[in-house]
Specification:
Layout lengths: L1 E3 L6 H14 L3 E3 L5 H10 L6 H13 L5 E3 L2 E4 L8 H13 L4 E2 L2 E3 L6 H11 L4 H30 L5 E5 L2 H4 L5 H8 L5 E4 L19 H13 L5 E7 L3 H13 L4 E6 L5 H17 L1
Parallel strand pairs: 1-2, 1-3, 3-5, 4-6, 7-8, 7-9, 9-10
């Protein structure tokens, strides 16, 4: 059995746990890195109001549609009243179901309705014919391995933050920061400079405060705000990476920029054909950091 997972949006939050879960069940996961062709294909399914990250998601669906038995598309609504998700995450199932002829595996995360990840994965495991006892064990093992790996990533991030070198906080959603065709190109360019790169998503939630704004209720935007508040006295600058036209980032990033007293660079990506322009802006920003 093969399950396709679009390497976009929710992938970068949950893939390691999913990987360990499905590995235990001997189910193969099918993915592909983002390419220009993926983006072009995704754009043909999208409306003009949709962000580049969502267009990339559609491109991955188009690639996977005839290469696997099912495509995993969870309906991620919220993690509680004050931990809401971008509306894209809760509409993906309906969008894909209407745009593509594919078999979908889905489950819902909605803490207000007592629906969580564990219940959801056990539900689809039963749908695939596995016993509940085996599925519970698979989920437990997946959580243990995921937590161990995530803990090490956070430790590495904190070690860089506490170093004596010049440091830049990279702020953005993981699906933008780590995408092969978006953030990784920018990160690779930054790695040429003698700087420590700190990532906004690699912090313990319990360590973060949110005094930059008490009214933001989007789960991952709150974590971004908390990371900035936690780091701002230890870093030399901030680079924001987002895709056009992200509604959450256009609001939250603007809020942050008005409150921080640090050099920052705001990169809003719509098309990476003109990477030279981004490289020039990064070079100018690094000059400012090095002179401070």
């Amino acid at each position: 059995m093969k399950i396709g997972i679009p390497k976009a949006l929710y992938y970068y939050y949950f893939i390691m746990k999913w990987k360990y879960f499905f590995d235990y069940l001997n189910i193969e996961i099918v993915t592909i890195d983002t390419t220009k062709e993926i983006i072009t294909k995704g754009d043909s399914y999208a409306s003009s109001e949709m962000c580049l990250s969502l267009k990339i998601f559609f491109g991955h669906i188009d690639y996977l549609k005839d290469k696997c038995d099912y495509i995993l598309i969870p309906n991620i609504n919220n993690f509680g009243t004050y931990n809401q998700m971008c509306s894209n995450f809760s509409s993906l199932y309906d969008l894909v179901n209407n745009l593509f002829d594919v078999k979908i595996l889905t489950y819902e995360i909605n803490y207000l309705k007592h629906k969580n990840e564990k219940k959801g994965l056990i539900k689809i495991g039963r749908q695939l014919g596995f016993k509940t006892k085996l599925l519970k064990k698979a989920y437990k093992i997946a959580c243990i391995k995921y937590n161990k790996e995530q803990k090490q990533l956070i430790i590495d991030n904190m070690n860089k933050l506490n170093s004596g070198n010049k440091k830049i906080l990279i702020v953005g959603h993981p699906y933008n920061l780590y995408d092969n065709y978006l953030g990784k190109i920018i990160i690779k360019n930054l790695e040429k400079y003698p700087l420590e790169l700190i990532y906004s998503d690699l912090f313990n939630q319990d360590d973060l405060s949110f005094y930059l704004s008490e009214n933001i209720y989007w789960k991952y935007s709150k974590k971004t705000l908390g990371a900035i508040a936690y780091c701002q006295n230890k870093i030399d600058g901030i680079i924001f990476i987002s895709t056009f036209p992200c509604g959450l980032d256009s609001l939250v990033n603007e809020l942050v920029m008005r409150k921080i007293n640090l050099p920052y660079l705001n990169l809003v990506i719509d098309d990476l054909d003109a990477i030279t322009g981004i490289e020039t802006r990064i070079e100018s920003f690094i000059d400012i950091i090095e002179q401070n």
